């Protein structure tokens, strides 16, 4: 029986060593623990488990194993070496020196590791003597006072790039961070990353192997250097708990790699962003048929995607939870996609079909199938298709009262009545973008001022019919207390509009008056003096009546608070 237990223990021990070599430290720890249960007096097993726990950042538990070794055999050099190293990682150098000196006394003189103990004790003694820092003012690693779980939680609050920087502060922090898969569950290569930093397959592999099964998020919006190997890395783990996968601006990854990736680990994905990639109709269909948890699908500027991507025929769509779909700039998709979307995604709340060709008044009217719609973005003129544009707006707005963000740019047929129907029905509007609507007049601004008290973003540029009178009347109606962004480019406004905005809108962050030739330095100076603390961006391209000293003043005031001024002048008066 004893022999059988020993054989089983050795099997677990060797399995643990194999797992350790593969850097599968959690598995290795489990194997070594099973072996210890069968052979509780084997100091080699405790030493191996201590080494594994050290890799996992469980320094306190590893130190307990080292102490068990010394209790079992007071002459064990391995025990003293292991305990000393762990004390040093915990920042307890005095304890490390004491344990080395104790080992020198207890270890047998013919032990080959005795010289190592002497060497380490001498190094620790020299460091202690050279230190000129007063003990009371010594820096202290306060994380040694907290349980490992709490330390992991603290580090887990850091952004991805900050976590990378923290890992080079000290050896202890590096061990805690690098060996904790929990901390690497969110891989976001976009936050505070240097513009010249390149994300390669090798970089992705490094971080994925740190997080392994714990990875829930991967974001890389500058993925030009990634290849099929990146997707293969995620499959090899495999990252079954992945919920967010955003990989954009890539032309190297193939259709086959995307398809296999989605089929392998797409079950739990909630957010997919493949914008500006060469994905095909087959990839989109694979997503729709294999991602039952999907809520957001962004495939903007994917030039190979066509209307056929959404025609599943007899095949079942499992992505019934999709609420946000972005098709902005997909050249192969036209107005016919809307009927497919109404069938596939009945719960849509955000729809971006900006740049989709052939939109008509019927397209707008068909949006009545999305009663929960909160965001819609479109571009271009709407040709009449069975009803005029005003009736199309009546149909749409009566069925979609929850709209908060409405974007319709470069639609020359848009009228004041269209805007009236919109703002009267959608009283919760927070963003309204109508750039390039040439027929709009001051009547539109009156409607906005009356019904859009919660508006934060207003873009009504390139509408020559909007004047100072309309802006003033809009603001006199109590509008503007929440306004943060306003765009009035190429409108017939003067300094009066800027001064009125400055007086009524104390939360302004961004103002665009490009090509407003009647704007002068007086209006600009008044605006920045009153709103300079909140403003982050002021654009005055081709405002040739704004004197250079006013531009310098604007840059000085906004610059004090981190803002910037865009001023470019090329034309002659």
Written description of the protein model:
The chain is α/β, with parallel strands linked by helices and 573 residues long. 45% of the residues lie in helices and 9% in strands. The chain is built from 23 helices and 15 strands. The protein has a 15-stranded parallel sheet. The longest helix is centred in the first third of the chain and has 20 residues. It is elongated.
The main β sheet shows up as:
15 strands, parallel
**Fraction of residues in helix:** 40-55%
CATH architecture of the domain at 2-130: Alpha Horseshoe
How is the largest sheet built, in terms of strand order? 1-2-3-4-5-6-7-8-9-10-11-12-13-14-15
Oligomer: single chain
Structural class: alpha/beta
Strand content: 5-15%
Number of helices: 23
Gap from first CA to last CA? 102 Å
> How many E strands?
15
Compute the average pLDDT: 89
CATH topology name of the domain at 2-130, in short, is: Serine Threonine Protein Phosphatase 5, Tetratricopeptide repeat
TPR repeats: 9-42, 77-110
Keywords: TPR repeat
Protein name: F-box domain-containing protein
Organism: Gigaspora rosea
Write the layout of secondary structure elements.
Elements: H1 2-21, H2 25-38, H3 43-55, H4 59-72, H5 77-89, H6 93-106, H7 114-130, H8 148-156, H9 160-166, H10 171-178, E1 186-188, H11 201-211, E2 217-220, H12 228-236, E3 244-247, H13 255-265, E4 271-273, H14 281-290, E5 296-298, E6 324-326, H15 337-344, E7 350-352, H16 361-366, E8 375-379, H17 389-399, E9 405-409, H18 416-425, E10 431-433, H19 442-451, E11 457-459, H20 468-476, E12 485-487, H21 495-504, E13 510-512, H22 521-531, E14 537-539, H23 548-559, E15 564-566
Parallel strand pairs: 1-2, 2-3, 3-4, 4-5, 5-6, 6-7, 7-8, 8-9, 9-10, 10-11, 11-12, 12-13, 13-14, 14-15
């Amino acid at each position: 029986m004893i022999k059988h237990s020993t054989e089983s223990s050795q099997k677990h021990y060797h399995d643990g060593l194999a797992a350790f070599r593969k850097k599968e430290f959690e598995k290795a720890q489990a194997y070594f623990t099973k072996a210890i249960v069968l052979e509780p007096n084997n100091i080699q097993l405790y030493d191996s488990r201590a080494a594994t726990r050290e890799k996992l950042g469980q320094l306190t538990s590893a130190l307990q194993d080292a102490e068990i070794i010394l209790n079992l055999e007071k002459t064990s050099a391995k025990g003293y070496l292991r305990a000393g190293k762990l004390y040093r990682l915990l920042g307890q150098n005095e304890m490390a020196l004491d344990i080395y000196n104790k080992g020198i006394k207890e270890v047998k003189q013919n032990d080959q590791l005795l010289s190592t103990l002497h060497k380490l004790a001498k190094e620790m003694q020299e460091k202690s003597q050279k230190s000129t820092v007063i003990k009371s003012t010594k820096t202290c690693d306060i994380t040694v006072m907290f349980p490992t779980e709490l330390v992991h939680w603290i580090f887990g609050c850091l952004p991805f790039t900050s976590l990378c920087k923290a890992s080079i502060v000290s050896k202890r922090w590096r061990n805690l961070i690098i060996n904790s898969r929990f901390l690497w569950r969110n891989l976001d290569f976009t936050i505070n990353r240097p513009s010249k930093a390149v994300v390669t397959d090798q970089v992705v592999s490094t971080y994925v192997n740190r997080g392994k099964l714990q990875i829930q998020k991967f974001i890389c919006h500058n993925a030009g250097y990634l290849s099929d190997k990146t997707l293969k890395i995620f499959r090899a783990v495999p990252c079954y708990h992945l919920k967010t996968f955003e990989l954009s601006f890539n032309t190297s990854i193939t259709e086959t790699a995307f398809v296999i990736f989605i089929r392998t680990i797409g079950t739990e994905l909630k957010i997919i962003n493949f914008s500006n990639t060469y994905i095909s109709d087959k990839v989109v269909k694979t997503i729709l048929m294999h991602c039952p948890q999907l809520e957001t699908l962004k495939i903007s500027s994917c030039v190979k995607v066509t209307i056929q991507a959404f025609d599943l025929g007899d095949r079942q769509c499992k992505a019934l939870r999709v609420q946000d779909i972005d098709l902005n700039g997909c050249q192969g998709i036209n107005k016919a996609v809307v009927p497919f979307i109404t069938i596939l995604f009945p719960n849509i709340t955000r729809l971006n079909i900006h740049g989709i060709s052939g939109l008509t008044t019927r397209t707008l009217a068909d949006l009545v199938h999305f009663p929960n719609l909160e965001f819609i973005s479109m571009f271009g003129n709407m040709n009449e298709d069975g009803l005029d544009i005003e009736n199309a707006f009546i149909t749409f707005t009566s069925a979609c009262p929850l709209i908060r963000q409405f974007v319709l740019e470069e639609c020359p047929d848009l009228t004041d009545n269209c805007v009236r129907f919109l703002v009267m029905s959608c009283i919760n509007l927070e963003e309204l973008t109508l750039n390039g609507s040439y027929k709009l007049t001051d009547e539109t601004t009156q409607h906005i001022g009356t019904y859009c008290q919660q508006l934060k973003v207003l873009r009504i540029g390139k509408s020559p019919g909007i004047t100072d009178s309309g802006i003033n009347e809009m603001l006199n109606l109590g509008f503007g207390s929440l306004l943060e962004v306003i765009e009035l480019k190429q409108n017939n406004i003067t300094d009066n509009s800027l001064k009125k905005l400055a007086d009524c809108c104390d939360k302004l962050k961004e103002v665009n008056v490009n090509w407003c030739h009647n704007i002068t330095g007086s209006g600009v100076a008044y605006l920045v003096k009153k709103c300079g603390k909140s403003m982050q961006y002021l654009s005055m391209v081709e405002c040739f009546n704004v004197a250079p000293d006013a531009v310098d003043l604007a840059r000085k005031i906004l610059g004090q608070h981190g803002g910037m001024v865009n001023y470019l002048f090329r034309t002659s008066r």
